[in-house]
Design goal:
It is a single chain. This protein is 43% helix and 8% strand. With 141 residues, the chain is mainly α. Strands 1-3-2 form a 3-stranded antiparallel β-sheet. Helix 4 (44-56) crosses helix 8 (103-112). It is globular.
């Protein structure tokens, strides 16, 4: 019997993890992050928010919301997109089945643990906050 060499291209993970075959939006999370002490110390809701943020970053909704925000505020869009910035509003969280009742506490946890930075806190302007992914979690023991 011959030994078969398997590689990842033989297995289509999206078949099992996507609603339909046309849905190609995904987020990449490396094992090093999941195994880190900083990630392990996050609450379950903060972990869910982080994973949702990573997936949401690659969606059309984030693209359109960021583009609209940049156009209204006369900001260079490419600067936002290339630096990993994203907007995740309460209504967008609801689309993912996440209740936004205590979400501020979980954003604060992600910021304090170094996974996310709030680049534009627009609470007093009654518009979206803009977040950016961070790698400061690597330095937290």
């Amino acid at each position: 019997m011959s030994k078969r060499n398997y590689n990842m291209s033989d297995f289509n993970l999206s078949y099992y993890t996507s609603k339909n075959e046309k849905d190609k939006r995904f987020g990449c999370i490396y094992a090093g992050m999941l195994q880190s002490e900083a990630f392990k110390r996050l609450s379950h809701n903060a972990r869910l928010l982080l994973i949702t943020s990573i997936v949401h970053h690659s969606t059309t909704k984030n693209y359109n919301t960021l583009r609209k925000y940049c156009k209204l505020n006369d900001i260079d869009y490419d600067m936002f997109w290339k630096r990993g910035m994203f907007i995740l509003s309460a209504s967008q969280l609801a689309d993912y089945g996440i209740d936004s009742t205590h979400i501020a506490r979980h954003w604060r946890e992600l910021i304090d643990k170094g996974f996310v930075v709030c680049q534009y806190n627009n609470r007093h302007r009654k518009t979206y906050n803009i977040y950016q992914f961070s790698n400061k979690w690597r330095d937290i023991n």
